[in-house]
Amino acid sequence: MNFKKIHHIAIICSDYTCSKDFYVNKLGLEIIQEVYREERDSYKLDLALNGDYVIELFSFPNAPSRPSYPEAQGLRHLAFEVEDIEESVRELIERGIQPEDVRIDPFTQKRFTFFEDPDGLPLEIYEKG
Question: What CATH number does the domain located at 1-62 have?
Answer without folding.
Answer: 3.10.180.10
